């Protein structure tokens, strides 16, 4: 319990109280009929499906919950989620509180979805197999289910994880609605077949194609996890070799992602540019450690050795097919628009777009981080320097995109050296945006 703040525990207790109020509808009242066999069957199916989905597939097992919302009275539908949620596995502590939170959150969401479905005469449409009209109340119920889940998720993020309030709910609803719509359609198909002459056995057949699609999705996630592990291992190797820039790679990846999003790139390309930013300095594995950790200016010979790191990096990542155009950014992120960069002296649009993005992100973090040879600049001063060098060294579009993103969302620069060292002045301001180490 110590890991969860008191205000978050109060929040969980309030949600549990709301669930208890919702379940009070199960008390024996005249005119209220609860099909307990259906509740038990759906609850058992959800518990088993959730366990399999969490271990073998990808994500939660919501179709059964939504089928319960379409078939059962609201209090009974809320009950379907409890056994599976209370028995679900979790790697984070405290386990009992997290299970209680999960059970309360799902029960409240299913209860709300069932209420909306009944208010729109959804059960009659399901019983009569009245398609496509049945899609309207089912769709409204799915939207409410998603709204309740995301509202509660944002609250717990703000209170338990201390995520800033203005960011806690950002993007939660749009990201969740698409997958939940698919789950809702499967739940509606289950409910319609359940009410058909073929009964619950036919409803179970709906889960077979869903499981196949989940399995395919799980393979994608496993492949993605393997990609992340590969990148993480390379970055850790660079961080161990060049302790002064620890954390630099991740920050360049984040800044590259901000630029890509500001330019309106699609999610897949944004992710590739994040990879490019993270791996841009992987070639330092081929540079002698004494040069990377040297205090003070480099000799011309030492600088020529340092300037080989983009080519070393490209050789390292050339065989990693999933990186795609990120490999070009590793090779060309020190090129300059005026042709004075390295390794090939490319000019203007000859420089691949990902490399122009990473070049700006890399220079920005170099200027806002304290290293053994230079003191960090304020963010606004770094942005002003990037704008001064735009057109000659940096692509003005990339500079403008980063400036817009940071002036809107802010940035938190970090000291990246392991131990304090006295800063040494550089020869010129532009030197800070050139071949930094």
Q: Could you walk me through the main structural features you see in this protein, from its secondary elements to its overall organization?
A:
- 64% of the residues lie in helices and 0% in strands.
- The protein is mainly alpha-helical and 437 residues long.
- α3 crosses α9 (172-194) and α17 crosses α18 (353-367).
- 40% of the residues are buried.
- Residues 414-435 have low confidence and may be disordered.
Question: Can you summarize this structure?
Answer:
With 437 residues, the protein is an all-alpha fold. Helices cover 64% and strands 0% of the residues. The longest helix has 35 residues, at 207-241.
Radius of gyration from CA coordinates: 28 Å
Distance from N terminus to C terminus (CA atoms, Å) equals 44 Å
How many helices? 20
- Which H/E pattern describes the elements? HHHHHHHHHHHHHHHHHHHH
The total strand number stands at 0
Q: Structural class of the secondary structure composition?
A: mainly alpha
Cα shape: elongated
What share of the residues lie within helices?
55-70%
Sheet-strand content, in percent, reads under 5%
Please outline the major beta sheet. Answer: none
Uncertain segments: 414-435
Give the integer mean of the pLDDT values: 81
SSE layout and pairing:
Blueprint (H helix, E strand, L loop, with lengths): L5 H18 L12 H21 L6 H9 L2 H13 L8 H25 L2 H6 L7 H26 L4 H4 L3 H23 L5 H5 L2 H35 L6 H15 L4 H13 L9 H4 L7 H7 L2 H9 L8 H7 L20 H15 L11 H11 L6 H14 L28
Helix pairs in contact: 1-5, 1-7, 2-3, 2-4, 3-4, 3-5, 3-9, 4-5, 5-7, 7-9, 12-13, 12-18, 12-20, 13-17, 16-17, 17-18, 18-19
């Amino acid at each position: 319990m110590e890991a969860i703040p008191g205000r978050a525990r109060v929040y969980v207790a309030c949600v549990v109280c709301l669930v208890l109020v919702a379940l009070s509808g199960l008390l024996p009242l005249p005119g209220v009929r609860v099909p307990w066999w259906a509740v038990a069957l759906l609850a058992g199916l959800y518990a088993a499906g959730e366990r399999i989905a969490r271990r073998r597939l990808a994500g939660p097992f919501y179709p059964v919950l939504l089928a319960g919302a379409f078939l059962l009275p609201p209090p009974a539908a809320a009950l379907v989620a409890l056994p599976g949620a209370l028995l679900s596995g979790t790697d984070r502590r405290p386990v009992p509180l997290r299970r209680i939170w999960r059970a309360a959150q799902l029960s409240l969401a299913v209860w709300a979805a069932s209420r909306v479905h009944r208010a729109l005469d959804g059960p009659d449409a399901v019983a009569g197999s009245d398609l496509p009209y049945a899609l309207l109340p089912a769709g409204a119920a799915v939207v409410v289910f998603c709204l309740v889940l995301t509202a509660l998720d944002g609250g717990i993020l703000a209170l338990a994880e201390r995520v800033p309030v203005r960011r806690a709910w950002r993007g939660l609803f749009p990201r969740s609605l698409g997958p939940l719509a698919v789950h809702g359609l499967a739940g509606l198909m289950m409910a319609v077949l359940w009410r058909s002459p073929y009964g619950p056995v036919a409803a179970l057949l709906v889960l077979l194609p869903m499981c196949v699609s989940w399995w395919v999705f799980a393979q994608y996630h496993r492949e993605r996890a393997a990609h992340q592990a590969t990148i993480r291992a390379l970055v850790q190797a660079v961080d161990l070799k060049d302790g002064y820039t620890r954390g630099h790679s991740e920050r360049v990846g984040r800044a590259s992602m901000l630029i890509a999003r500001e330019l309106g790139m699609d999610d897949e390309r944004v992710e590739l540019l994040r990879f490019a930013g993270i791996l841009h300095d992987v070639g330092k594995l081929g540079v002698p450690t004494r040069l990377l950790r040297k205090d003070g200016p480099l000799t011309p010979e030492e600088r020529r050795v340092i300037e080989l790191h983009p080519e070393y990096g490209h050789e390292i990542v050339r065989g990693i097919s999933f990186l795609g155009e990120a490999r070009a950014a590793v090779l060309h992120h020190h090129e300059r628009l005026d042709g004075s960069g390295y390794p090939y002296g490319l000019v203007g649009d000859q420089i691949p777009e990902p490399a122009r993005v990473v070049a700006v992100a890399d220079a920005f973090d170099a200027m806002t981080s304290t290293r053994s040879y230079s003191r960090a600049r304020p963010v606004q001063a770094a942005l002003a320097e990037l704008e001064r060098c735009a057109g000659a060294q940096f692509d003005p579009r990339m500079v403008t995109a980063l400036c817009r993103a940071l002036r809107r969302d802010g940035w938190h620069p970090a000291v990246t050296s392991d131990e304090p060292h006295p800063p040494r002045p550089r020869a010129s301001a532009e030197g800070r945006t050139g071949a930094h180490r």
